Amino acid sequence: MLEEITVKVKTSAEYAGLPLPEYGSDLAAGLDLLACLPPDEELVLQPGERALVPTGLFLELPPDFEAQVRPRSGLALKHGLTVLNSPGTVDADYRGEVAVILINLGRQPFVISRGMRIAQMVFARWSRAHWQPVDELSATGRGGGGFGHSGV
């Protein structure tokens, strides 16, 4: 059974006329975030260029949740557009506007317009760690092997 949480959301004045983010299917994990640009404005990202794109959303998350901002796979595959700090984290105590750092890794300029689905947001429960300094760690079959240790 899917757990549902309540997220309080406030929108900017510029958001007027745009729908709140929605899930694309019954079992989709991510909501699609929209670009909240002025109606008569477009943002052109040249190859290699990055920009902070406003969403017009301000959130109040439950205390033990974060919101993760992730790329949309279709934009990444078809255009090389991705979220630069993926996944971006929106902390439960952040009250500023959610914005998306997009980068164009494609070969062509990419045009972002008002209401375009630019990223997705996934909500996740998190825990805090308490460090326990020790002199030894338990042994495992893997040990310290990493970064290609399996030969693949």
Polypeptide structure, described:
This protein has a 4-stranded antiparallel β-sheet. The chain has a 4-stranded antiparallel β-sheet with strand order 2-10-5-7, with no helix packed on it. A two-stranded antiparallel ribbon has the order 3-9. The protein is globular and about 60 Å long. It has 1 helix and 10 strands, in the order βββββαβββββ. Helix content is 5%, strand content 37%. The chain has 152 residues and is mainly beta.
What best-fitting shape do the alpha-carbon axes yield?
Answer: globular
Strand order of the largest sheet: 1-4-8-6
- Please give the count of helices: 1
Give the radius of gyration: 19 Å
- The arrangement of helices and strands along the chain is EEEEEHEEEEE
Protein topology:
Blueprint: E1 8-11, E2 31-34, E3 42-45, E4 50-60, E5 65-70, H1 73-79, E6 81-83, E7 88-90, E8 97-104, E9 110-113, E10 117-125
Antiparallel strand pairs: 1-4, 2-10, 3-9, 4-8, 5-7, 5-10, 6-8
Question: What are the defining features of this structure?
Answer:
152 residues, mainly beta, 4-stranded antiparallel β-sheet
Brief synopsis:
The chain has 152 residues and is mainly beta. It has 1 helix and 10 strands; from the N terminus they run E-E-E-E-E-H-E-E-E-E-E.
